[in-house]
Amino acid sequence: MSAINSSLNANRIPFYRSTRFQNILKNIVVYILLVVLSFVFVFPFFWMIDSALKSDAQIFLWPPQWIPNPIQWQNFVTAFTNPHLPFLTFFKNTMTLEIGIIVGRLLSCILIAYGFARLEAPGKNFWFGVLLATFMVPGAVTMIPKYILFNKLGWVNTYLPLIVPAWFGESYGIFLMRQFFLTIPRELEEAAIMDGANTYHILRYVIVPLSMPVIAVITVLSFKDIWNDFFTPLLYLNNSSKYTLSIGLAYFNGQYKVAMGPLMAASVVLLLPLVIVFFIAQKAFVEGISLTGLTGR
Amino acid sequence: MKKLLFALSMLVIASMILAACAPTTTPVPTQAPATAVPATQVPATEVPTVPQLSGTVRVGSWDSADALTPFNNAIASFKVAYPGVTVQLEDVPTGYGDKLLAEFASGTAPDVFQVGDGDVAKFAVQGVFEPLDPYIAGTKGNDPLDTSVFYPAIADIGKVNGTTYLLSKDYSPLMLYYNKKFFDAAGVAYPTANWTWTDLLNAAQKLTITDASGKISQWGIQLPDGWGDPLWTRGILPIIYQNGGDIISPDGKTVTGYLNSDATVQALQWYTDLFLKSKVAPSKADVAALSGQDLFQTGKAAMLWTGVWPLGGYIKDTTMNFGTAQLPMGKQRANSICWAGFAMYSKSQNKDAAWAFLRWIGADQGAQAFADYALTAVKAIADSQGKTTDPYYGPVMADLANVHPLPDFTTMKFNDCLNTPFMAALEGYFANGGDLKTIMTGVATAADTCLSK
Q1: Which of A69, A188, B400, B443 has the lowest CB atom count within 10 Å?
Q2: Are A213 and A181 in contact (CB under 8 A)?
């Protein structure tokens, strides 16, 4: 009925009030916004790659030289052949942390989150509140007490202060997993119980296979955080032979001197694993983000 | 995008400002034979007469990458002389201060650690420095250290209220660079050691060139540094000292009567007039407009007043034809300094070995390794390198005797109470003018209140 009315009255409605025009307008606005935003997001990457191929003098030229001329591949050589910067060692060290932390974090978070999601215990919600409250404590507050604690344990200058805490849960991961587990229908577990499954079986054969999206989210986010973490390894490790890649990068960005070209060249290379990990896990990752309400819906 | 570039350039500028007091990391060609060893070194055969040292010495440094070479060289030579001691270098490329604070809190800082001149007063109050005088006097069962091997003014920088806490790592006083080509073209005589403020101003005026459109194409002098920060206190201090002024009392308790004294205000007037009245020096905006390029190197400034750090690069640049001179005289000769030192941690578990290493890098053979990269405090090493007679370094070394102690060391509140408000007031004067005496009296009064809290 209304469609007939609107088509009948079409000649009376000003063009700017027509649905068609408003849709086009909406699309134009959305696309402009997306183009501008994507420019904002992509530009730093472009600038990084651009600078990686320039000499220091070219980097600081004004107006900027958009296409490096001549192209300085030398920056990559400088960055990765400096005898003071054993990137292979740094890479091994970083991967030790990645594996040690991610494995521990996934195992502990799955167990703890399942407990919060399904099992009954006195004061469960209170403890969940306490867990969430630990989000709110800024890292700077606990930094020195934690340092003193690990120092008393004799763990300074080892990877233990970095890896061991991950085996005892991580509030953000637990929170994400619990929210995800709550969306899994209870009927599935009940069916498993009917088939004689115990809690371990339910976790192993029902919950975990269904939770791949959230596991992917936590893995990717953890991978990124550990990859980029600069201060924690710096604080606890004393020997440069134990340093990680992010500290290695900082060598170009010394207290008093910045080697911009090699820094950007190394940054480009060090970014690649993150990009690869993201694309491998992309499908599960995006699904996980939308399912766990990370988008704020 | 402009904002991003702006932010990026600000980052770069910030890093350059940090370089202000940087121990220069530019390798400096050395003429010293590898065997040059100061006379104080204990020959290896006599080592058994001192107690055998053993254990581990941890050494903290903010240096990174190539700047670690002197550390590695010094550690290698130390290992030969003291085979029982293991030296563990803990290099922290950035965040050095934060890491030190955590280590101080848990009592696990390195036995020997590098300290910048801005941290000395704060650390001294915290009690993290081991007083070195007993070790220097040899009352700890070690050989005494003859401090006459050092340049006296440089060795004094390591003292706070008369107690020696640090040995020098490297340093840079302020100096004057001049472009010979521009001086010749303008028919102005090169700067000499006897230049006065008037000579400098006259030369700067003749060397400032305005093009047809009324724009200045060549500045007479860039000061007090090469990165266009006219508020940099350390670079302005020599002018104040040269006029017989000061900015704070030697005990670090009073500012009134120092910062607003006639001598200091007169010096600041002369300094700011170079920008505002005679317009021979590029302002911050002028430097920013040239997007952070080195004005002296690119031939946009005929003179440069800054530290020793660009010298190595200038010498390597064969297109440059320049000379160096010590700072001009005011009423007297005076200079200031950027400085870094090594301290021993007061809670070190192995102080005897820590002292042996500290002494090794501060005064003995290890100091040679650092001298290859920056100016050394040990006279014999500087002499053996030919630094004192070098045409470029000679004038700098000649000015060492005129270096004043750093006002930053007098009180840990130096930055909060005096330096920051002083720079803000100076910035206000650059922007809005006014009466310098009144302005500085205002800063001094507020600083006194702040210091007494």
Answers
A1: A69
A2: no
